[in-house]
Structure formats: structure tokens, C-alpha cells
Amino acid sequence: MTIQEKDYSLISKKLLSKADKDGIERKIVKVVVRKGDAILMLKRAETERFSGLYELPGGDLKRMKMFFFEPAENCMKKPA
């Protein structure tokens, strides 16, 4: 089954709605960035908690909300 881009937005909205109903206040997201067989992994800085570990890029949803509700090409445009 292939999930189309418009379906991601619908799935995201449903998950967020359920999280709100369940009283989940802080939402963290991770993304998989693929190019061919490669996957982007980030190494935590030595000054951070769990330093030196590798993880998928992501963060607090409040700061990343535009990525879930905007088409990818809009997120990559420079502000006017």
C-alpha cells in the first residue's frame, strides 16, 4: 500500500487530535530522510544529554508544525 502525501496530513491530524483527547501535552516527532539506500542520522553533540549517540532528525512538534501541514515544496522556499 502506498500512502500519498495528502494522506500523511490526514493521518497526522488524526494522531494529533487523539493525543489532545488523551491529554498528551508534549509531542515529539522524528523523520526519516532517505536518499537511495542512505538514511540521514544525526550525532548528538558532546555537550548534550546522551552525547555521541546517533538519532533521526526531529524535535518538538510546536516548533516543527509547518512541516506536517504544508507541502514539502512550500517548506523549502525562502521567505519573501
From TrEMBL:
Mind telling me which InterPro entries this protein's record contains?
Answer: NUDIX_hydrolase-like_dom_sf
The record, for SUPFAM superfamilies, names: Nudix
Fetch the Gene3D superfamilies from UniProt.
Nucleoside Triphosphate Pyrophosphohydrolase (3.90.79.10)
Name by which UniProt lists this protein: Nudix hydrolase domain-containing protein
